[in-house]
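Each letter names a residue; structure tokens follow underneath. Both lines appear below:
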Amino acid sequence: MQEYRVMVSTADVWSQPGPGPDRERLTQALCGDRVRTKRVEKGWVLGQVQDGYWGWLARAELEPAPEKEERQVVVAEAVVQVPLLFSGGTATESPIRLYLGTRLTVIDEHPGSFVVRLPGGSLGQLPAGVVHRPTENKATEVLKYALCLKGSPYLWGGMTCDGIDCSGLVHMAYRTAGILLPRDADQQYAYGWRVESSLVPGDLVFFATTEPGFPAHVGHYLGEDRFLHASSRLGGVVVTSLNAPFYRECLLGARRVLTAQAGFGFRQGEEQGAWENTP
């Protein structure tokens, strides 16, 4: 199975190749993400992206992936403009737009910045201040990354501040902190531990918004009966009260992925990807 790598800021993953009335955006892959492919068909690639989804990506947005990656850093801001240092050997000032959770290979490090390799062979200069710095408090990290997407518009299948859905908001916040959760709300509901007592900031809250008992919507609990979520009803990433009538009535339950016993731990190991669920 050949592997490609995304060489644009974001690549849409579609339910079918080419345009069509029934085509649906399933998810998005970020610059540098690897894609496992099954076949190429008329400019489209059928592949599996790192959140586990299989779908169709435009071949023009991909390049063959290197055999291995060296040291990497993760973008920890909603979006950054990274100046290109070289493009085909020629200096350029044209920046590339990179989003929260993008992983980049480090070529060199200078005071206050990293020189990173971008898909296509270009080099970019990434400020050190926009790079993820691990801490002992993973819950604080996750909420920080989720909150930096507040105000982003809603987009079904979206994964960035230009458009994101509810489970994408959860997935990207955890991914940036080094934890790969499943992509969809129902999968995330099955992943964590059930919260039987009081909620704490960092817990995930789930709602049966489409049919009884089915976790179709998810958000980050912030404390004081408030949660952050990407809402199609409200148009984007907002903070809402759990006591709001609609959400109070369809609240299904909560899950805890992070635990505070002897520091923060995880239900699965860090960086375990959805690729392990390859059919």
Summary: The chain has three domains: 3-64, 72-130, 138-277.
